[in-house]
TrEMBL record:
This is DNA-binding protein. Residues 14-60 form the Helix-turn-helix domain. Keywords: DNA-binding. Residues 96-279 form the PBP domain. GO terms for molecular function: DNA binding. It comes from uncultured Thiotrichaceae bacterium. It holds the Pfam family PBP_like. InterPro entries: HTH_17, PBP_domain, SinI_DNA-bd.
Length: 306
């Protein structure tokens, strides 16, 4: 029986550091550096780095000539109903020629997936609009791949609290709902909406564990659905989400929603076509139906210019 070392590298599904160094004609020190930085597809098994050969091949293709895997656009990150509708319509238009998909994961998990090359674009919202040009780059700089990324403005949206409509007769002030009789929806750790809620509560000297949080939602739309199903009374979220589910809304300001994207993917026709679709009359009509959007600066490079 042949040992792994004697087999052709093309036939081995998982390569060691030594094997992938030989496969890519790089030294082992460079392979360790790429793995530790999250640049190359790799996983640790009992403390040793292993490299899926199929993903290594895809990574090499996608790293050359601004990316040859230009027939897909996988979007993750923050949840937004307008982006969902835009992507769905855009995917229907391009048909089976390319793969375009959107999976709301929350901001931080989306960036983790972007860092590990499992998605192409991450939606980000991490604080009020007037601080976004500082906060969003600062958040990206926690990731070793940030030097290869840029931030592109998608839109601005109105942010606040999604509430059950009858509660608006009770009050339109957030502090009125801190009492234990009101059921709050909290978001998962790393979600931009949860960060927003924590900052709102902090301004009142409160923390999330002081609220009656009976439900945790993995997206803003899931949070709004919980209220519509009478599983909760109030949740952080955007006006557009509240309107989509026929819920009440208490406005607390505006926030920027940006795309974090590798520089080589930014130049792809598929992403540029998505931005054009967002700017188009059908895209603007969708935004007007949902309400709570500002299209000033769509497609603008916010950060990452060389």
């Amino acid at each position: 029986m042949k040992s792994l070392d004697s087999q052709p590298l093309e036939s081995i599904p998982f390569l060691s550091v030594k094997q992938v160094a030989s496969y890519l004609q790089l030294n082992e020190k460079k392979i360790y550096e790429l793995a530790n930085n999250g640049t190359i597809p790799a996983t640790k098994v009992t403390g040793k780095w292993m490299f899926p050969r199929e993903l290594i091949n895809r990574w090499m293709l996608d790293s050359s000539h601004s990316g040859l895997l230009s027939d897909r656009l996988i979007i993750a990150g923050s949840d937004d109903p307008l982006l969902y509708r835009i992507v769905s319509s855009f995917a229907a238009d391009v048909g089976s020629k390319v793969l375009v998909s959107y999976s709301p994961t929350g901001t931080r998990l989306g960036l983790d997936l972007l860092q590990s090359h499992r998605v192409d674009v991450c939606g980000v919202h991490w604080g009020p609009d007037n601080e976004s040009r500082m906060r969003h780059p600062a958040l990206l700089q926690h990731y070793s791949q940030h030097k290869n990324w840029v931030l592109i403005r998608a839109f601005k949206r109105e942010q606040g609290l999604i509430v059950s409509p009858p509660l608006l007769k009770y009050s339109t002030k957030p502090e009125a709902f801190f009492d234990q009789q009101f059921r709050w929806v909290k978001r998962q750790k790393g979600a931009g909406a949860q960060r927003f809620l924590e900052e709102v509560l902090y301004s009142y000297g409160m923390k999330t564990d002081m609220l009656n949080c009976e439900t945790e939602a993995l997206s803003e739309r899931e949070a709004a659905a919980a209220i519509a199903m009478d599983l909760a009374d109030i949740a952080p979220g955007a006006r557009s989400v509240a309107n989509e589910f026929g819920q009440g809304f208490i406005s607390l300001g505006w926030e920027a929603f940006d795309f974090a994207i590798p520089r080589n993917i930014w130049f792809r026709h598929l992403f540029q076509d998505l931005i054009k679709y967002l700017k188009s009359m059908p895209g603007q009509h969708m935004a007007e139906e949902l309400t709570g959007y500002d299209f000033g600066g769509v497609g603008e490079l916010i950060w990452g210019e060389e």
